[in-house]
Amino acid sequence: MQRPLSGVKVLDLTRALAGPFCSLILADLGAEVIKVEPTPNGDMIRQWGPFDQGISVYYLSANRNKKGMGVDFRHPDGAALLRDMALKSDVLVENFKAGTAAAMGLGYEQLAASHPGLIYASISGFGSRGPARDWAGFDQIAQGYSGLMSLTGTEESGPVRVGTAIGDLTAGMWAAMGVLAAYVEKQRSGAGQHVETSLLAGLMGLLSVQGQRYLSKGEVPQPCGNVHPVIAPYGTFETADGPLNLAPATQDMWLRLCGLLELPGLAEDERFRTNADRIAHRMELKQLLESSLRRKTRMQWTPLMIEAGIPAGPINRLDDVFHDAQVQACGLVESVSHPLLGELRQVGLPISMSGAPDGSVRSAPPLFGQHTVEVLADFGWDQAAIDDLISRKVVFQSA
C-alpha cells in the first residue's frame, strides 16, 4: 500500500513557515521532499524559539518527513546545482521575494523552458502584482491587511490576531491544494504550470460570510468576540469552573436549552421569542443563562447538552487537548525518533485515507545538512563530485 504522492519529487526552497507548511503537507502525503537550506545557518526558523535542547520547536513543527541539505545559494555553483535539481524534480516550492528566484536563474519561465512538466509553486506575502508586491510576508501584517483581525476580538479589546500564524498556515494549505490540482492536470495534459498564492489571498479566502456581508449588503462587520454574529444564544458562557461553548443554532434547540436549564419562562419572554429578538437582547440573555449554567461544571453540562441535542463543548487548554480521550482515540498525535531529542511527538496529518498506510509521521525533521550526500547521490552526482562540492563549501553535510 503506497501513499498517494509516492514517487513525486519535490524541491523545497522555502523558509520560515508558509512554504515549509506547504511542503510538509506534500511530504505527509508521501512525496519525497528535499528541503534545501542556505549555508551557513540554514532556515531562519531554526533561530526562532522556544527551543528543546537547543532545537527550535518552530522548526520541528513544520519540517518532518523531509530530507535536508545545505547549499550556498549565493555561490554560482550552488545556484547551478539547484537548477540541475529543479530540472530533475516534479515540483518546486519557493517563497522568495518577487524577482529573487529569477535572479538566481530559478524563475518559473527559466525552468519551464527546459522542463515544461514542472509544477512550480510560489508563495508571497501580498501577491506578485500590485503596489504591495514587494512587501515582506509576515503573518501578523497579513492578518491585519486582510481584514481578518478586524473580525477577531471584542469591542473593548479591538482587533486581535489569531493565536497561531494562520496567514502562513493558510497560504501553505492553499499552495498545497494548488500543487495537487496542477498534478492532476499534468496527468491529463503532461504540462506543468505555475501555482501562486499569498498570505493576503489565503486569508481573504477565509472571510466567508463576513466577506459576503460586505460584498452583498455593504455591511462592515465588527468584532464580535466569542458570540456568533447572526445567531443567539451562540457563543461562550460561564459555568461553575470556566467557559463552555454552546451552539443552539435552531429555534427547536433554543427551546430545548430553556428546558434543560430549567428556565421555561425565557421561551415565552417577548425579548427572546425569535432569533432576531435574542440578538437584540443578547447580553441580558447571556446573564440569565449563566445564572443557571453556574450550577454545574463544563464537563457536567457537556454530556447533558449533547444528550439533549444541543451542540456544546468545553474550551480546552492545550494540556487538556493532548490528554483528551477523543484526541487519543483518533490518533491525532504520532511519535517519531529524532537523532538528538529521542522520541518526538507531533500532531499528524489531519486526513486519513482508506487506500494509504496508517500514520503520517515517518521521519523526524532533519538536522541542518543531514542528507546532503544522500540527496546528491540520488540526483546523479558521483562521490568525487560530491566531495569536491563539500570541500569548496558549495554544499554542507552535517557530521
UniProtKB/TrEMBL annotation:
Signal peptide: none annotated. GO terms for molecular function: transferase activity. The keyword Transferase applies. Keywords: Transferase. Pfam families: CoA_transf_3. This is CaiB/BaiF CoA transferase family protein.
